[in-house]
Write a structure and sequence with these properties.
The protein has 10 helices and 10 strands. The protein is an alpha/beta fold and about 240 residues long. It has a 6-stranded mixed β-sheet with strand order 6-7-8-3-9-10, sandwiched between helices. Strands 2-1-4-5 form a 4-stranded antiparallel β-sheet, covered by helices on one side.
Length: about 240
């Protein structure tokens, strides 16, 4: 469904991503894991069109999307939940969700999608008129995922969904990620520093280290792989 080939991204003289290649099959949950500064967030931002690559090709459903604008990529069904959630803090929950459906035109389908989001995350319905900036970190993450789902994606990228969230809500968020994948068939690319959680719910993993793929394989095989510890700890 998504194929990344020889992708390189530079910020001036610094190479944040250095010639990585990977594939995400339809219907899978695949994770990118690694330490701070490994290039995970840059990879997602480049796929979603927020950052321009220095080299490489990104194909989504066999179409080259490498140079498309972010809104054109969203229109093709690829949505990105960014690191730190980035909800519109001064807008209500309802307004944030409405912005997620900005490219959609069928009001009946938008209403059905919103009800589906409420079924996944009942707290959002309870706080519909509340401004997003007053929600807890976990509730904001629910809102960020719900906002992305309003765009009717077939492919969802999640950047650090456990970051800054109370442990009891982290479990809920990850359960919902699995539910979205299994019941709706959404393909998911997950960036996550919590390797244990990421490997628990994914089928395949790529471990990034200083902008390169250091380890790749089935998630179940990597859980106790000493190379994973080396990539995190520099051993």
């Amino acid at each position: 469904m998504l194929t990344v080939t020889d992708l390189s991204v530079a910020y001036g003289p610094i190479k944040a991503v250095n010639g990585i290649s990977f594939e995400i099959p339809r219907g899978a949950i695949v994770t990118l894991i690694g330490g701070n500064g490994a290039g995970k967030t840059t990879t997602l931002q480049t796929i979603s069109g927020l950052v321009r690559p220095a080299a490489g090709v990104i194909r989504f459903n066999q179409e080259d999307i490498t140079r498309l604008a972010p809104h054109e990529i969203v229109a093709r069904g690829l949505c990105h939940v960014p690191e730190g959630r980035l909800v519109f803090a001064n807008l209500s929950v309802a307004e944030n969700l409405a912005l997620g459906a900005y490219l959609q035109r069928d009001s009946a389908s938008i209403d059905r999608t919103r009800e589906h989001v409420f079924a996944l995350f009942p707290r959002l319905k309870e706080r519909l008129k509340q401004t997003a900036g007053t929600l807890s970190g976990g509730e904001q993450q629910m809102l960020a995922i719900g906002r992305a789902l309003m765009g009717w994606p077939t492919f969802l990228m999640l950047d650090e969904p456990s970051l800054g969230i109370a442990p009891r809500l982290v479990t809920t968020i990850f359960e919902k990620i699995v539910e979205i994948n299994r019941e709706e068939g959404l393909t998911i690319l997950l960036v996550e520093q919590n390797a244990h959680l990421a490997l628990e719910i994914s089928s395949h993993a790529y471990v990034l280290e200083t902008g390169q793929i250091a380890v790749a394989g089935a998630s179940r095989d990597l859980r106790d792989d000493p190379r994973l510890k080396a990539a995190y700890l520099g051993g």
